[in-house]
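INFO  loader      accepted 1 record
INFO  loader      residues=295
INFO  predictor   begin
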Amino acid sequence: MESVREIKRKIRSIKSIQQITSAMELISVSRLRRLASKVKMSRSYINRLREIIENLSFTHEHLTHPLMVTRVPRAIGVLIITSDRGLCGAYNSNIIRIAQSFVEDQSSKREVKLILIGKKGYDFFKKRSYQIIKYQPQPSKGITFADSHNIAQELIKGYAEERYDEIYLFFTKFTTAIHIYPTSIKLLPFKSSEVKGGEDGVAKFTSEYIFEPSREKIWETLLPRYVETQVYQAILESLTSEYGARMVSMKSATENAKHLVSDLTLIYNKARQAAITKELLEITSVTEALRCGQH
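INFO  predictor   done
INFO  writer      dumping tokens
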């Protein structure tokens, strides 16, 4: 059995770790609440933006844009979003797993170029024979639209210059702190979703717009803005999911530490009691030996 001193040292160490995990849990909760509201607002914005773009593309079929051009996919770009730090459960391993599976499958058919956000994904893919075009760390303090602008512009420019024939986006979608899941979307070429029609089977849009300065000028601006917003949304969802995963992991670690301290305290008390009993027996034996010696 371990000595009383060793058990007491372990209890102190675990309590110290418990304080750290508890503090990290509280920080994650605070940041999660702030980001969750941003996710909700950003979703509303991007859904409305897509609705406007689809309305224009349906009602004005002559409008075209380089980001809508479909080509035979000889080279594809894959944007993968992970975190810079660990201690967030299976958050990084889940998104890396599905991204790697996709990349492995596509690599046998066409050239795959990786654009990475987050140190964990970068560390994983750089150790393997993958072509990394661009790397950017996760924003350390919140996220702004400017954080996603450079990456989005790289994707837009690369697609327009035909360096990428298709672009895919892998990120972690946030639902609740305990319900996050890795997902992927085809970012480019832009393709309108299927629109349900009316009774005559013809798709109908109820919104009508007055354009200023012109349809063409607005159209040139909307699609790049949609790509930028979609990248921003993906980073925001991933960052929120990271804090949700970290909150759950740190809460579990704090509870495990609490149980471990309880178990070790019980062992400590038993060891202490055994030590006291042993000392009493030794004192009693010595006293008895002295008494017998006097006779």
